[in-house]
Design brief:
By secondary structure, this protein is mostly beta strands. Helices cover about 0% and strands about 55% of the residues. It is built from three helices and 30 strands. The chain has a 17-stranded antiparallel β-sheet, with no helix packed on it. The longest helix is centred in the middle third of the chain and has 6 residues, at about 385-390. The relative contact order is 0.06.
């Protein structure tokens, strides 16, 4: 009989690749390659009746449960290229490439669960009285044709042009293909004779590029209307059936980004200082996104190509050799200033988000003329501390003495969603990073830092400000409003049925600056002189990850992002776990 939970996972993965290369004539080569990624997993878990649950951990026995899950996927890719390279008249070099590639991915998942075991003696699902199962499969494929031409004259004039044509299974049959051309040029000015007298400049290159790229990452089968199993009761008997769960969109096509990048590279003081500066301007059209639609349609969203967005900014980097003697010190610094603006949304410029009062559809609003995903909500204005306060101030329909107060921005005497406004921006003013490398004889030291300035973060405090008594709460709730005689500090409202939801609406109360400087890594090492003929090199090192975080942010992680890289839902901290500080000792040996 089992007395503790078991969870067994078996995993097998195969990674393989092969290629062949043939040279037919001088400078003419054909290369073909195939790669495969295959994985198979199965997991069996059993929780006996003697083990508690997260919400009822102190009161066993509980119902014994078991599960068995399998997952299988494979991805294969084949690429075939024909390349010709030739130098003419000593100074002219061309490189021509043409190719074809195909890729396919397929995944299958199966799940079995069992409950109502007669005892804990047998953990296999077959012993359960009630059994349930599910399975699903998904696959996608991509076919690409591509070509590229590079031209180089004397190593100082460079021109490149390329063209891709990609077809994806994720779009409607009439919109699967997209063409993406690009062209770039470069000029090494420092190689010109008129630069020979400028001794301070060792290297100078100007470059420009214009081109387009495509995105098809929208998941599988969103171009179709999907259905799901749905059961019903007819005449006291269970009848199985199907029902639609999403709206298809056969007009889905590639999201396209067209952009210009202009840059300059400068090497100074015998290349001890190397500076790179870039300006970019990019327009993304037909962005792929699930837009919200009225629930009265029977659905809540539909995948669509929704609009046009402009992105622009400046990026700078400086690489310097500060000290070059026995004691060496190199610094790499980079900083970027990125901006964006919404140009068009759908066919009638309907904003994305800003809908309702709670949940993720209300936190952000993306609207034409503004940056993407600005925070949208109320301006928090404290608590109705007294009856006079309450009688003289604008109120929400649920307001009462001691509850949350918001500002009446349109001054109509009522607090409602017409008083919502843009309250913050999750996009930073700038991002930066600094890496310092030091070395002296056999010792080396590396310090890596990164930071962000100017971004706002929405910190969801709904759970730890609930006064129901079943959650841990923040310490400032001890100074909450209790009565007119004991009004507290004015930051935390009372707990009163029918009023607390308004206090948890999106507002400036939970919006905080999230600028930070993080020492990401400190590593010190010592390279051991050659010991034997067998050991060619050895190095011992010690490192600290997440060594230091300098910030005024109120949460535990100013880099939190509950929604990952979703550009329309940035800057949301759903009580993320802090990044741990990790200490490590290591030894690298080369034989």
């Amino acid at each position: 009989t089992l007395t503790e939970s078991t969870n067994r996972l078996k995993s097998t993965r195969l990674l393989s690749n092969a290629f062949a290369e043939f040279q037919f004539l001088e400078g003419l080569k054909f290369k073909t390659s195939v790669s495969l990624d295959l994985s198979a997993n199965n997991q069996r878990a059993f929780k006996p009746s003697t083990v508690g649950t997260a919400s009822n951990s102190n009161l066993p026995p509980n119902m014994a449960t078991a599960s068995y899950n399998t997952a299988f996927y494979y991805s294969w890719l084949t690429e075939n290229t024909l390349n010709y390279e030739k130098t003419f008249a000593q100074d002219h070099t061309i490189d021509v490439l043409a190719g074809y590639s195909a890729q396919k991915f397929r995944q299958e998942n199966n799940s079995l669960t069992g409950t109502d075991f007669p005892d804990d003696a047998v953990s296999w699902i077959d012993a359960a009285a009630i059994k349930n199962g599910s399975s699903n499969m998904g696959e996608w494929s991509l076919i690409s044709f591509f070509s590229r031409l590079n031209y180089n004259y004397k190593g100082k004039y460079m021109l490149s042009a390329s063209l891709r044509r990609d077809g994806s299974s994720r779009f409607g049959s009439g919109n699967r293909w997209g063409a993406f051309p690009s062209i770039s040029a470069g000029w090494v000015v420092s190689d010109e004779t008129f630069m020979s007298d400028l001794n301070a400049i060792d290297y100078l290159k100007v470059r420009a590029e214009y081109g387009s790229s495509g995105n098809f990452n929208i998941g599988n089968y969103t171009q179709f209307g999907n259905i799901s199993s749905t059961n019903y009761i007819f005449g006291n008997a269970l009848a199985s059936g199907r029902s639609p769960v999403s709206i298809g969109n056969s007009q889905l096509t590639w999201e396209t980004s067209k952009g210009l990048d202009v840059g300059i590279d400068i090497g100074l003081l015998k290349n001890r200082i190397f500076v790179t500066a870039d300006f970019y301007n990019k327009v993304t059209s037909d962005m792929l996104y699930q837009i919200d639609i009225p629930a009265g349609t029977g659905y809540t969203n539909i995948q669509s190509n929704v609009g046009e967005f402009k992105f622009w900014g400046y990026e700078f980097s400086v690489n310097s050799k500060n000290l070059v003697g026995n004691f060496k010190w190199n610094t790499d610094f980079n900083i970027s200033f990125n901006r964006n603006k919404v140009i068009k949304l759908g066919t009638n410029n309907t904003p994305i988000g800003g809908i309702g009062e709670q949940g993720e559809t209300s936190y952000w609003k993306t609207e034409v003329g503004n940056p993407i995903a600005l925070f949208y909500g109320y301006v928090w204005d404290g608590v109705y501390m007294t009856q006079e306060d309450f009688d003289s101030q604008p109120k929400h329909i649920t307001s009462a003495v001691g509850t949350t107060r918001m500002k009446d921005l349109n001054q109509d005497g009522v607090i409602d969603n017409k008083d919502k406004t843009y309250i913050g921006n999750p996009n930073p003013d700038f991002l930066f990073g600094i890496t310092n490398n030091f070395s002296y004889k056999n010792f080396d030291l590396t310090v890596v830092m990164s930071g962000s300035y100017g971004a706002d973060m929405f910190v969801h405090r709904g759970w730890n400000e609930i006064q129901d008594g079943n959650f841990n709460v923040r310490k400032d709730l001890k100074d909450r409003w209790r009565s007119i005689e004991d009004p507290g500090a004015g930051a935390q409202a009372r707990s009163l049925s029918g009023t607390t939801a308004f206090g948890r609406f999106t507002s400036t109360k939970w919006l905080f600056p999230a600028s930070y400087l993080t020492v990401k890594n400190i590593t010190i090492g010592y390279s051991i002189p050659k010991l034997t003929h067998v050991i060619k090199q050895a190095r011992v090192y010690a490192s600290i990850q997440q060594a230091l975080v300098l910030t005024n942010y109120v949460g535990v992680n100013p880099e939190a992002s509950k929604n990952g890289l979703d550009g329309l839902k940035l800057g949301f901290d759903g009580t993320a776990y802090p990044i741990p500080r990790t200490f490590a000792l290591g030894l690298n040996v080369t034989f």
